[in-house]
């Protein structure tokens, strides 16, 4: 990936950059009783997970919380987000909280992220970008397809990664935030996911399949009886270009309050920053 494009990914990407400076087992069989209950969240695990993104589209919208954890050199840092997502329009809005600086000396302003088909918009990006302007990033230009760069994985993109599930097992029934769910564990292949993904995610997932250290994504996912994702934890790995070491990132997504209002509007062209970003040799895409 062009490093300049990566740096354009904004304040959350800067947080991931700070961190850079510093297995889920699976079988092809479902657990006993899972296939016999006759609900969308039951059945052959691989087939069920291939349909998880479709179940979200049927739900229409939901609220979401995200967290992204990276551990390196004995230090663990977490980036958290909260917002709403419209699965039919492929639009989301998250408020992302960056971790403290490694010294713990300063706090960061929350970054507003708008997630759209093929694009990421960020406000309060910092690095010389005016406070009232947005930075736009073409997610297909990022080597991770924005599964990691933005500091929060796009909920629908995360669900579409499951379209690439090759192996999965039914772990058992449990609860997430008081909702009965089925827990599945498996591994998805990003190349396969890209081939089955919606048009808006196809190029980004294909970029991730090439850009990550491994195209295989171990995951744990919890589906309710309508087949909707309630919790999804995915583990990505990429190579730190500075140290040439493989770094692991765990992204966790919680979805709830399905049908919540999701009035999301993308910035007008005049509100998108086209100037230089501090530390970048070129201006951001406008």
Secondary structure: elements and pairs:
Blueprint: H1 3-7, H2 11-21, H3 45-50, H4 52-59, E1 61-72, E2 75-86, E3 91-97, E4 111-116, E5 119-123, E6 134-138, H5 155-161, E7 165-176, E8 179-189, H6 190-196, H7 199-211, E9 216-223, E10 229-240, E11 245-256
Antiparallel strand pairs: 1-2, 1-11, 2-3, 3-4, 4-5, 5-6, 7-8, 8-9, 9-10, 10-11
Précis, in short:
Helices cover about 20% and strands about 35% of the residues. With about 290 residues, it is α+β, with helices and mostly antiparallel strands. The chain is globular and about 50 Å long.
Tell me what the structure shows.
The protein is an alpha+beta fold and 286 residues long. The chain has one domain (3-257): Clam (outer membrane lipoprotein receptor (LolB), chain A). It has seven helices and eleven strands. It has helices at residues 3-7, 11-21, 45-50, 52-59, 155-161, 190-196, 199-211; strands spanning 61-72, 75-86, 91-97, 111-116, 119-123, 134-138, 165-176, 179-189, 216-223, 229-240, 245-256. It has an eleven-stranded antiparallel β-sheet. Helix 6 runs antiparallel to helix 7. The two termini are 19 Å apart. The model is unreliable at 1-39 and 281-286 (pLDDT under 50).
């Amino acid at each position: 990936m062009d490093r300049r494009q990566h740096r354009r990914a904004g304040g959350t990407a800067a947080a991931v950059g700070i961190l850079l400076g510093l297995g889920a087992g699976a079988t092809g069989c479902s657990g006993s009783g899972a296939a016999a209950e006759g609900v969308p969240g039951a059945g052959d695990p691989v087939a069920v997970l291939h349909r998880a993104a479709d179940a979200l589209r049927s739900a229409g919208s939901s609220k979401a919380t995200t967290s992204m954890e990276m551990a390196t050199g004995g230090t663990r840092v977490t980036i958290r987000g909260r917002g709403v997502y419209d699965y039919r329009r492929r639009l989301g809005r998250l408020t992302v909280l960056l971790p403290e600086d490694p010294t713990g000396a300063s706090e960061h302003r929350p970054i507003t992220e708008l997630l759209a088909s093929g694009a990421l918009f960020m406000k309060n990006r910092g690095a010389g970008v005016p406070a009232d302007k947005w930075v736009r990033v073409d997610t297909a230009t990022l080597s991770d397809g924005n599964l990691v760069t933005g500091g929060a994985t796009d909920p629908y993109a995360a669900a579409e990664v499951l379209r690439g599930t090759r192996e999965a097992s039914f772990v058992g029934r449990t609860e997430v935030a008081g909702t009965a769910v089925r827990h599945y564990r498996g591994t998805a292949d990003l190349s396969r996911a890209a081939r089955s993904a919606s048009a808006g995610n196809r190029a980004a997932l294909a970029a991730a399949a090439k850009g990550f250290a491994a195209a295989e994504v171990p995951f744990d996912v919890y589906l309710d009886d309508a087949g909707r994702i309630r919790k999804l934890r995915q583990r990505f790995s990429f190579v730190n270009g500075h140290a040439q070491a493989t770094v692991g990132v765990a992204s966790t997504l919680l979805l709830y309050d399905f049908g919540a209002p999701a009035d999301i509007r993308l910035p007008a062209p005049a509100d998108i920053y086209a100037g230089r970003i501090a530390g970048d040799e070129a201006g951001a895409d406008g």
